[in-house]
Amino acid sequence: MKERVWTAAAVLALALAGCGGPGQTVKFSASAATVPAPEKAQNALRVAVALFEDLRADKGRVGRYQHYVETRVDQLVPAKGTASEQVTEFVAEYLKRAGFQVTRVQSGAAAGAADVVLTGQIESYWNEAVGRFFHTELMSKNRLVLRASNTGDGSTVRTTVAGEGTTTVFCFCPTDLEKLNSEALGESVKRFLGDVVVADRGLQPKR
Q1: Bridge partner residues of 131 (DSSP)
Q2: Residue of 24, 105, 99 whose CA lies nearest to 63
């Protein structure tokens, strides 16, 4: 009987505390390899992806974890570099998986022999975990402005895309939210690719 009481107490403590202590700075990752593989492009365009511009007021954080029955929160920050670098790298890796020949450049001026120069802006990028009684509610959302400049004819395709997701877990660990974030970013890039077609060695609006 005593063993059962201790087991129940341990489960309750785990539900209340989650998998980490409050008030920490937690490194937060995003990976295109964890989302479903996109449909392959028919023609392998050479795409130069330049560093995205972060328009958010708070450029240091990408999310938070509010513990249950705690007044402090864990702050989520990019695992490597900045939010701009994290999102740009995700987009570049997603395009590679979609069959494009992708290179990373510092700016559009360094595009070299690319068929398309892709630049972007991050309007919103946020992930949140909120501890509740015996569960944690997760939310990820982003809003990106993507510009594809075709070097052949000088035309530009501009589109605004957004991705979001929510889920609930019993015991929260950061990898749960990282997976949701990657899925939300993948949704945004998938929507961008759904708005364009490959034509004349460039990306053109889908009609």
Answers
A1: 136
A2: 24
